[in-house]
Amino acid sequence: MKKILLFVLLLVCGNAFSQNYKITYLKSSNGSLIENQDPILAFTSSEVTQIGSQSIFNGKADFPNEIIFVDRKTNSFSQVADLDAIKTINSKDSVSLGKQTFEYLNDTKKILGYNCKKAKTIVNSNNIELWYTNELKVKGAPTILGQNLGLVLEMVRNGNFVIKATKIERIKMFPTDPDLSKSIDMLTYKDLLWKSRFNTINVFKDQIINFSSEAKSNDSILRFANGTIAVRKIRIPEIKVGSQIFVDVTEQSNGDAYDRTGSFFIIPNNKTLSFLDGLQNGAKTLPIYNNGNGKEYQGVVATENYNPVVELMRFFTPFGVKQYNNLQLKDKTWAENVLYRQDVSDLRSLLSNQEVWIGINIGNYDKGGHKVSANITIHDEEESKVTPTQIVPLFCTNNIMEMAGQEYGTMFSSDKGLEVTFKLDKPLKNCKLRYITTGHGGWENGDEFVPKKNTIFLDGKETFGFTPWRQDCGSYRLSNPASGNFPNGLSSSDYSRANWCPGSVTNPVFIDLGDLEAGNHNIQIKIPQGLPEGSSFSSWNVSGVLIGE
Description:
The chain is mainly beta and 549 residues long. The chain contains six helices and 32 strands. The strands form six sheets. Strands 1, 2, 3, 4, 5, 6, 7, 8, 9, 10, 11 and 12 form a twelve-stranded antiparallel β-sheet that branches. Strands 14-15-22-17-20-29 form a six-stranded antiparallel β-sheet, covered by helices on one side. A four-stranded antiparallel β-sheet has the order 13-23-16-21, with no helix packed on it. A hairpin with a 7-residue loop joins strand 18 and strand 19 (297-298). The longest helix is centred in the N-terminal third of the chain and has 16 residues, at 2-17. It is elongated. The N and C termini lie far apart (84 Å).
């Protein structure tokens, strides 16, 4: 009987000294509470702390979501993430809590009636101040930082971002008891969690882009122009207005040592004729543009029955990255590949909820060519004030089918230059021309190395003019192992060029065109193209789409 009474006394006393608490935290920025926020909740006792958002503990959070569990017996913590309705992952860290260091200050203040002390630390160049109390005999914090100080009731980052406790409640039990038996390493955990936050559409994986009569199509990827073009059909899900859309291409040489023009593009198929017809049936089947200089330019401008390709990204290969890394130089560690990444959110309406043909091209005459991978990633935004837009493809003189006979963009040798007439069925507001331009002609007097003004005319009036030029090409030296070295101490890849560098992306220029009425309009591009010298000639790859509300 005495043993039973003693057990009951120990149980009662244990409950009296081991309380469970729920702390609610809210975030403020520059002195104002953040609107519509999801409060942070911390459940803590002398043995365990759980941290997550209110929506997670209520079972209403979007995926992915994450809870942190602190085990005070082992001074470790586990992170548990629900990636979707089925897949949950977790990882344990037994080291980080013990490595946290703080400067303890003499400042004190009361928060929610509890006496608090102050500590501070620096994390990734951010000054963090923590106010904590020891009066509740438990430890905890709204983040993993400061878990062993006491009960942290306020965190201040750089003096302007605050996480502060607004309520402390006693509770009988914790809301969840996770299964931590199948743990993965922290690096893998972070990678899986990060990738689950956005939608990745894999378009090409280790695709060879080369020049070879042996290049063959398969069930999913069509290859054209002796293997220098790869095309496949991709289903794109609905993309919310305001979402961020990125494209990325990873490239390395598979034999070709030279800097080449690359394009990652969409083939519009909303008219009776498309660029795909030209790929399948020959460049001569595409609409011909004439400007009076005696040459025919296939598929470069929009017509009533045809839309040219829309470039998602114009990129340029470096001189032989990876394949020629054996060409060693002192203090030069060559890159293993080149990653090109660009925001293409402005082209959402061409992608959202569409089944589209997407292609990639690198103009080259090498049997080994280049190896590329390409993806589209879609990143939802929590709140957006972006207005939906419409896209009107207009022109593309980048001769993507060069290795299948498509003419170079030499039409600027004539004063007429490039001209396209288009019809709007209804007015468009706040119109912009998304314009990509690069000059080519790789000898001393070629337009690749000579600045030339681009002038844009709308309905006969000059609208915009600028000289596209890149002076940062030396920044990409470590991607160019096979670049030629000259007696003056420069490499070929160092030289400034007409809006491109070996190993870089050429960004679009957005030209304001104002509000356009319904009906016919005309856009004209003029560039003072240089004259040929012997067999050498200059050309310009320009592409443009109209974007309007």
